[in-house]
Amino acid sequence: MVKELIVASNNPNKIREIKQILSQYPMRILSMGEIGVNIDVDEDGTTFMQNAYKKAKSVYDFLGRRFMVLADDSGLMVKGLDGDPGVHSARFAGEHGNDEKNNEKLLRLLKNKNTDSRMAKFLCAMVLILETDKMIEVQGEIKGVICKEERGNNKFGYDPLFYVPEYGMTFGEMPAKLKNSISHRAKALEKLKIELGKYIEKKV
């Protein structure tokens, strides 16, 4: 029987998305808040995967290695900024989670830059620790272009600046259902679902 899976997050939207995509598997998916756990992990890795692993491993060890633990880290990488803001996406302008300041800085650094320099991608790295010596690592990404001004009512993160050519709109303009179906996290989760299925088949 598959044990419970703990998501190293308390983000309700993220938890809901993970539960939906992994719903076919016989397991209980819970946030840290749902099991009364609250620990801070210093995300000091140089890559998204390093940060995702550190979060997953810290929570896995804290829980006494009794549960599977899933963690992710994601952010924006811009070609003309040599991959920045990268792992510093949430604190690009200095203050963690200040979307307005982060967007202002991004626009300032890209001022007068051509379209090629504005090419960007959102990347999501996920690590699922299954057992002490077994884990799954996956990445998902979506490519786009940084606009010269914000567009759309969804002001979350860099969404109003991230334009997806195939859909002719920014993440900030997209209906939530569409964005969640094509996002970097959704793509990472689809890969995770496949790998998790292989693991479960071996266990049955």
From TrEMBL:
Coiled-coil zones: none
Catalytic activity: ITP + H2O = IMP + diphosphate + H(+); dITP + H2O = dIMP + diphosphate + H(+); XTP + H2O = XMP + diphosphate + H(+)
Family matches, as NCBIfam families: PRK14822.1, RdgB/HAM1 family non-canonical purine NTP pyrophosphatase
Keyword Cell wall biogenesis/degradation appears in the UniProt entry: no
Manner of cofactor binding, per the entry note: Binds 1 Mg(2+) ion per subunit.
Record-listed substrate binding positions: 9-14, 74, 156-159, 179, 184-185
Any Pfam family hit: Ham1p_like
The species this protein was found in: Clostridium lapidicellarium
Record's function text: Pyrophosphatase that catalyzes the hydrolysis of nucleoside triphosphates to their monophosphate derivatives, with a high preference for the non-canonical purine nucleotides XTP (xanthosine triphosphate), dITP (deoxyinosine triphosphate) and ITP. Seems to function as a house-cleaning enzyme that removes non-canonical purine nucleotides from the nucleotide pool, thus preventing their incorporation into DNA/RNA and avoiding chromosomal lesions.
Cofactor(s) named in the record: Mg(2+)
InterPro entries to which the protein is assigned, alphabetical: dITP/XTP_pyrophosphatase, ITPase-like_fam, RdgB/HAM1
Record's keyword terms, sorted: Hydrolase, Magnesium, Metal-binding, Nucleotide metabolism, Nucleotide-binding
GO MF annotation: an example: ITP diphosphatase activity
Keyword rRNA-binding: no
Protein name listed in UniProt: dITP/XTP pyrophosphatase
Quaternary structure and partners: Homodimer.
Residues of the active site: 73 (proton acceptor)
Binding site for Mg(2+): 42, 73
Assigned EC number: 3.6.1.66
Listed Gene3D superfamilies: 3.90.950.10
Family label: Belongs to the HAM1 NTPase family.
